[in-house]
């Protein structure tokens, strides 16, 4: 059966065909289907495998192409991948060589443009409006296409000169030979070289035709776009002139309006009425949003309670409002009275509160080929993958754990609660608030070294103090302990398990979190949900939180079941939705929580519950009649310019700020992390690799010592007595990461 004749390779086209690939000494050369596209050469066993199974791919941008004989050639990218290929004929081999050379030239050029794109982007003026941005990107894309075609023409010209010279030499040799046995061989060579010359000439002609067609098509479009830009500029100037006139008119009207309306004659009454009106309007909006969000949850439905419950001002409602708001109102009253009373003692002897930094150096715009690194990491544990700092943010995992305390005020309010069920609502809101900082934070924190610590002392500003330590290397695990003067203690032991699945990255926290309140002796515990990073390879990175959390009060038996709904394109619910129900030890529901983990949480008191109709999955859902929802937590706005500072919150900006008196093992003293924050990423990568290699060496040394200690128990006692000190000097160092961190912190000051 004759094979179809492959098409002549043209610049930019996909080239396909059969080649014989060397497999091993037993099977020898095996027939494979090869596809050349976008600078990548891939092969399959059959054409049917193209849709699902690729047997191998090599990037031509870094590959070498060498011809062995008339039919054989080799493609290698420096030793990692080498393809020994054989064509069916010399002409077929030359077709592939021509296509590969064209594809390699284009791949090298595109890689160079990608490396330079980061420097060119800031220099380009910002377009006005989305339409201007689209047109600018379209023009830039067209210019790149035309430039690519010009480069293709240059490559084809070089190939024509090369094959033309070879053809000329063959013709000269043909004239000088005698008629005889050598004539047939020379004629065959001339014929083959003439064929190669014709193939290259056809590629040149096709490239010229493409370039001419593109230039003609886009010339008219650019002329039309230029005229459109001129018209828009004229309309914009007219609009600005009208706005300037209106502005002057409003200024004159404002200066002339000296008589206030009667409602503002009494400042107290006017301000009170204005506040209440605004509050009612916002409450109505919040109600609408709340009940829309609770429109169709998986397990229960909330509806407004019967008006008779709202009329009970002397019992349930007043009791509820007193439980919820009395502590806050009294606290605010005390603060106002102290501020307004001149006889109250003024803390003149106290030192001023330290002013924390509000900015860090902007994130550099460095290009990195993500797939070249991640393709070898599929299925591996994230903590065992050597990653450059391009994927990181300048914070360690210990500092990210300390960020859970950004909304510490929720625990302060919970510590004042008299009702354990209400206190459960605040604790549940605190668990949700810890995820609010992750919505835009796609950077990976630094893996802490063994023995690394981070101390967050906010006693004077916020009344709490926190300490984290990396207590295990493999598997990585950290311990966190925070204590507050307001009467609560938080501790957590976090171990992360993560898997890269190709399209997304899953991070599963394995530890538990404990919260204790001194006043009520309540002890709460819960675990974290799964974090998923989507679009690892293609598209914009985005993060989702999904799973369920059970917050348990071990003293009273109260429980709060929180459900983080995974994002779905087809869902009618608001994205990042969180719902929860607070029940007592008997399983009776008392409060409903609802909101989103990236914005706010609200809670409502349940007045009555009943069984409703079956849901979509046949499960009978519970209908809760609730009072008006109250906001229990709202996310703080990000600081100005956060998009250029890794989307750090106000607290995150201060976590890596240098401080005096911290331990030598503190994360602030990590040299690679500090270099990354300063924008010196190349040096940070080198330092990060040095630290990781030193930690691996220390780990191997510990394992050898453990084996040695197991063989001689007496030596084991001596070794243990030496290794008990976590911050021993270099002379005592035997390889523990604790001493290693101390050593690195001293090295940091010389960077």
CATH architecture of the domain at 376-687: Beta Barrel
Instruction: Report on the biggest sheet.
Output: 7 strands, antiparallel
Helix content: 40-55%
Strand content: 15-25%
Number of strands: 25
Structural class: alpha+beta
- CATH topology term of the domain at 376-687: Porin
Q: What is the overall pLDDT average?
A: 76
Task: Output the strand order for the largest sheet.
Answer: 4-3-2-1-7-6-5
Biased composition (Basic and acidic residues): 666-707
Keywords: Coiled coil, Lipid transport, Lipid-binding, Membrane, Phosphoprotein, Transport
GO cellular component, one term: cytosol
Region (Disordered): 113-137, 259-289, 301-326, 658-751
Offer a few descriptive terms:
alpha+beta, PH-domain like, 6-stranded antiparallel barrel, 25 strands, 23% strand, 42% helix, single chain, Porin, 7-stranded antiparallel sheet, 15 helices, 751 residues
């Amino acid at each position: 059966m004759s094979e179809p004749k492959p098409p002549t390779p043209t610049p930019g086209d996909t080239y396909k065909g059969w080649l014989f690939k060397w497999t091993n000494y037993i099977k020898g050369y095996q027939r494979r289907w090869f596809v050349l596209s976008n600078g990548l050469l891939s092969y399959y066993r059959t054409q049917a495998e193209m849709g699902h199974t690729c047997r191998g791919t090599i990037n031509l941008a870094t590959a070498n192409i060498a011809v062995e004989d008339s039919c054989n050639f080799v493609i290698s990218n420096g030793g990692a991948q080498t393809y020994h290929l054989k064509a069916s004929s010399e002409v077929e081999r030359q077709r592939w060589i021509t296509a590969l050379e064209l594809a390699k030239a284009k791949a090298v050029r595109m890689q160079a443009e990608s490396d330079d794109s980061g420097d060119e982007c800031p220099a380009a003026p910002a377009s006005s409006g989305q339409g201007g941005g689209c047109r600018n990107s379209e023009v830039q894309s067209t210019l790149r296409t035309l430039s690519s075609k010009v480069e293709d023409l240059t490559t084809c010209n070089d190939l024509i000169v090369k094959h033309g010279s070879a053809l000329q030499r063959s013709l000269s040799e043909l004239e000088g030979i005698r008629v005889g046995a050598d004539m047939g061989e020379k004629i065959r060579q001339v014929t083959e070289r003439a064929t190669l010359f014709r193939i290259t000439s056809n590629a040149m002609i096709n490239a010229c035709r493409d370039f001419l067609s593109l230039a003609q098509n886009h010339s008219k479009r650019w002329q039309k776009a230029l005229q459109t830009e001129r018209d828009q500029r004229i309309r914009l100037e007219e609009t600005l002139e009208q706005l300037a006139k209106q502005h002057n008119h409003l200024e004159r009207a404002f200066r002339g309006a000296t008589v206030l309306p009667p409602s503002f004659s009494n400042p107290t009454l006017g301000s009170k009425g204005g506040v209440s009106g605004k509050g009612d309007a916002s409450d109505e909006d919040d109600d609408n949003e709340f009940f829309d969000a609770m429109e169709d949850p998986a397990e229960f439905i909330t509806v407004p309670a019967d008006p008779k419950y709202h009329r009970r001002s002397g019992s349930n409602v007043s009791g509820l409002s007193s439980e919820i708001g009395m502590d806050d109102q009294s606290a605010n009253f005390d603060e106002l009275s102290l501020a307004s009373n001149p006889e109250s003692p003024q803390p003149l002897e106290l030192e001023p509160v330290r002013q924390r930094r509000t900015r860090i150096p902007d994130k550099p715009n460095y290009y990195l080929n993500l797939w070249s690194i991640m393709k070898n990491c599929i299925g591996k544990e994230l903590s065992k993958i050597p990653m450059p700092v391009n994927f990181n943010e300048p914070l360690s995992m210990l500092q990210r754990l300390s960020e859970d305390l950004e909304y510490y005020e929720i625990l302060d309010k919970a510590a004042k609660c008299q009702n354990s069920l209400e206190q459960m609502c605040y604790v549940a809101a605190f668990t949700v608030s810890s995820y609010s900082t992750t919505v835009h934070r796609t950077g990976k924190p630094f893996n802490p070294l063994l023995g690394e610590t981070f101390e967050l002392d906010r006693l004077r500003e916020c009344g709490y103090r926190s300490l984290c330590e990396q207590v295990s290397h493999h598997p990585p695990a950290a311990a966190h302990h925070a204590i507050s003067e307001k009467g609560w203690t938080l501790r957590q032991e976090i171990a992360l398990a993560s898997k890269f699945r190709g399209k997304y990255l899953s991070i599963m926290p394995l530890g538990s979190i404990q919260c204790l309140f001194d006043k009520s002796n309540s002890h709460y515990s819960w675990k974290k949900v799964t974090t998923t990073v989507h679009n690892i390879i293609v598209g914009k990175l985005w993060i989702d939180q999904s799973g369920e959390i059970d917050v348990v009060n071990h003293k009273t038996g109260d429980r709060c079941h929180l459900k983080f709904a995974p994002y779905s394109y087809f869902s009618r619910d608001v994205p990042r939705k969180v719902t929860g129900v607070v029940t007592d030890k008997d399983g009776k529901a008392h409060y409903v929580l609802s909101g989103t983990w990236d914005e706010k949480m609200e809670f409502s008191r349940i007045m009555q519950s009943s069984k409703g109709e079956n849901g979509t999955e046949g499960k009978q859902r519970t209908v809760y009649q609730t009072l008006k929802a109250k906001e229990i937590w709202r996310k703080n706005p990000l600081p100005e310019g956060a998009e250029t500072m890794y989307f750090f919150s106000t607290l995150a900006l201060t976590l890596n700020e240098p401080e005096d008196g911290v331990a030598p093992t503190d994360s602030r003293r990590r040299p690679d992390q500090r270099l990354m924050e300063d924008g010196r990423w190349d040096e940070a990568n080198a330092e990060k690799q040095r630290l990781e290699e030193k930690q691996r060496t220390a780990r191997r040394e510990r394992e050898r010592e453990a084996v040695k200690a197991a063989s001689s128990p007496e030596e084991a006692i001596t070794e243990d007595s030496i290794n008990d000190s976590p911050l021993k000097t270099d002379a005592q160092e035997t390889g523990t990461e604790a001493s290693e961190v101390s050593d690195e912190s001293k090295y940091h000051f010389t960077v």
